Structure formats: C-alpha cells, structure tokens
Amino acid sequence: MLFFPCTRKRENNKNRCLQKGDSATPANEASSSTVSTNVSAAYKKLIAYKTEGYEKQSIADFNGALASTPDELTEFLAAVADVSGTISYDDENYDFLDTTIRFSSQELYCEHMGEELTFFISLAKMSRPCNYVDEDGETVYDFTCFVESNISYSINEPKLVTVAERDKALLTFKEEMQNYLNSLSEAEEAIQ
To answer: Residue 141 falls within a domain, yes or no?
Structure first.
C-alpha cells in the first residue's frame, strides 16, 4: 500500500526493520540533499493540514477536509505516496505524517473502496547479540522475530471521536502488542 508501514531495507539478502533514527537510504547509495519538486509540493500539501488544533477535530471533519471528492482523494493519496518514501525519522513533522496522515489516508482509501478499516503493524524483537557486527557496523542478533499484521477496526461515530483519540488508541494498541511480544520467551515466539 501507499502508507507508512515499517519500511524494510533489503541489503545482502537481509531484511531489517528500520528503527527511528535509521536512514531509509542504504549507506552505499548516494544521498541527495535536494528534494524533487514533486515531493516538495506533496510535502507542503500534507503539512498544510497540520493546522492549529487539528488533533481536537473530529475524524469526520478532519478526513473530510483531506479529501471530500474522488478527485481530491486521488490527489491526496498521490501526495502521501510521494512523501512516504522520502520522509526522514528526524523530520519535525514525521509523527504527524506517520501517524495522523497515515491513519486518515488508510481510512479514506478503505471507505472509498468499500473495505473494512485496517491498521498495519510491524513489530520486532531481537535477543542474544552476537560478538560481531555486520558490514554496516550494526549489532547482529542470534535470535530475531518479526511480526506483521493487519488489524481490522471500526469507528462507529467518526463525528464523536477526535483525531487525537483515534491516533492514541491505535498507537496504544501497537505498543501493547510490542509489550506482549517482548514478554514472550523465544520458545513461545516460535510456537506463536
């Protein structure tokens, strides 16, 4: 999909979940300090929705302002797609884009397609660090567990739920799932 799931970077036949602070650009690729005009325009379009008090708006009002027609939805989703591959974890607007815009874009897309709402979560647990590092200088773990899941949810009264309440509920769910994964032993994880 177009949204901001845990970005996977494939290097030397390894999958590794990028963590906050990692770069989405592999170390061996040249990074550019310039942003394409298309991405810059898309970024500005999305950030324009970060208005004073947006968190207190109902989901219905906020999502309606993002895209109220199919053409606006197409433009909005294109902007999300343009920005999703370029946003840096240290960008001051990362949380707004990765949380609020991602959740709203998913809801608008699902509503338009007549599909149930889903929340994609990607979790990771690593244990038993090895005595060596990989070619990027990062710790290698003897045991790694990745979990990816789509969770169905519904919002019965989007006019009564604020953006902040929705964001907090979904992020809390993800955090509790990560806490559960962290509490399992390696044997329990293998069985799950």
So the answer is: yes
- Rounded CA gap, 100 and 60, in Å? 13
pLDDT tens, position by position, 37-56: 455 899 999 999 999 999 99
Phi-psi region of 128 (alpha: psi -120 to 50; beta: other; left: phi over 0): left
Tracing tokens 């379009």 back to the chain, one arrives at 45
Q: Whose structure tokens read 């032993």?
A: 185
Question: Does residue 8 lie within any of the structural domains?
Answer: no
pLDDT at 172: 95
105 to 24, 71, 175, 189: CA distances (angstroms)? 21, 14, 21, 32
Q: How far is CA 181 from the centre of its chain?
A: 19
Model-level pTM?
A: 0.72
Per-residue pLDDT at 110: 93
- Whether residue 31 lies inside any domain: the answer is no
Q: What is the mean pLDDT of residues 59-74?
A: 95
Distance CA 32, CA 35 (A): 8
